[in-house]
Design goal:
Strand content: 35-45%
Distance between the termini: 29 Å
Number of strands: 4
Radius of gyration: 12 Å
Largest sheet: 4 strands, mixed
Order of helices and strands: EEEHE
Length: about 80
């Protein structure tokens, strides 16, 4: 990946039986989320805790083939569930 990719990327990951579509891009040395949306199943019957957001971040890093330290933490206000 380039160190400054202006193109947004969409990645879909599965965490605890839920599918998430994550929109974001790499800025500098880190990948940053712009939006995290629940794809299904609906409704989400699981609280979106900091620990759950970290699970999404871990799955995202794996899907991007990056180290978790290269993926910024996901703020709660970016999650649509």
């Amino acid at each position: 990946m380039s160190t400054h990719n202006k193109l947004a990327t969409r990645v879909q990951v599965e965490v605890d039986g839920y599918n998430w579509r994550i929109h974001g891009r790499q800025h500098g040395l880190r990948w940053h989320c712009h939006l995290v949306e629940l794809v299904g199943p609906l409704p989400l019957d699981y609280p979106v805790t900091p620990r759950f957001r970290d699970k999404i971040r871990t799955a995202l890093a794996k899907a991007l083939e990056m180290d978790e330290s290269e993926v910024a933490r996901i703020p709660a206000d970016l999650i649509l569930a």
